[in-house]
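Endonuclease III homolog: structure tokens wanted.
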Amino acid sequence: MRTSRISRDTSKVANSLSARTKPLRATQGRTLKQYGFGAEQPVAAAKAAVKRELGDESGSELSSVPSDLDENLEPVDTTVTSLHKRKRGADTPASGTTTQQEIVTTQTPPRKRLALGVEPDTIATKDKAKKARRAPAKKIVGGNGKVKVEPPPNWEEVYNLTKEMRSKVIAPVDTMGCESLAEGHRSPRDQRFQTLIALMLSSQTKDTVTAAAMRNLQENLPGGLNLESILAVSPTQLNELIRMVGFHNNKATFIKKTAEILRTSFKGDIPDTIEGLVSLPGVGPKMAYLTMSAAWGRDEGIGVDVHVHRITNLWGWHKTRTPEETRASLEAWLPRDKWHEINKLLVGFGQTICLPVGRRCGVCVLSERGLCPGAIVGKEVKRVKKVKQEVVEGKLIKQDVEVEVERGVKAEDVDGDAVPDIEDIGSPSKGRRKPRRLAS
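Answer:
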């Protein structure tokens, strides 16, 4: 039986919109979109489109389309109705619709979001403190050719916050530093000599060990620790008394030679000039400036050790390769009234918070406020005991020493309250510093 044109068109539309429980495929949605079928009311849109095409406004024949289509047909997902790229400057989607970027942002893991090109600001991430940028001291040449050094812009804030942190902790240098090891009941000459000996012993040695060696000399040398007792003691006995410090063999030789030079060239007292101090065996610029400050009370330079050199470079105050370069850089702009205290300040800071291995940035105010460009998170230090072997006069001597090994810590445990997870201790040599030659 032949059917009318209206019946055939109606049948075609009904077949394409047959009731189903699954959403329309992308190709079907694209076809309906071309005919002007909306995603929210597909059946009503279909009826209106066919009526417009047939020029029939009554729609009597279309009333035979099954009514259950309205209940079972699911809306077309607007994120897949078009596979074409949107042109730049295109209008944003109307309110109530969901864009592809919003779906990716809310339903896709963070790593895949970045791969899909989602803007970083749409990704929900944990707030992190801003990392400071390096702002070193700058040299400014004036009109007359004179060079002036402009200090780092935030150095006073960093310095004052460090002093505040140091006031809340007691570091080994505060109670066992070289400046405090001389015996107060001795004569000024003997106190100056003891200060020099303490600094000579402190190279490559912790303050606690240096203090123990000094106490050993003060209590076991006949007549106590002074120039005469060092001249009288044998090299072997002196080496035995200081054997707990690093490189004790070399230091025992240096101390004996220094005592002889002081007796013959400096009238039994230590030199009162930097040139005279650095001429002594085993005394370098750092020891000389610290000795001048502690023994003679004159601040002629900054005593820069590994802590001062390392921390000031982490702060971005300069970019230097050696402690001597750091000293020259600091002396160019740091106020002279801080030359004496900066060594003890930063040594204690490096012993308690800004450790050489496993810096405790999680408890540092500078890291919290974004003032330290070198701040890191997630590492602490594990101290392990090892046996150090050394041959002395043909005999093998074993000594227990401590070495520092890095260990990982979770980001949420950087406050130091939780026990960190040990990632990899590695070989026994991991974390050990390479020995350096002593100043001669």
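The mean pLDDT is 75. The first strand starts at residue 138 and ends at 141.

Cheers.
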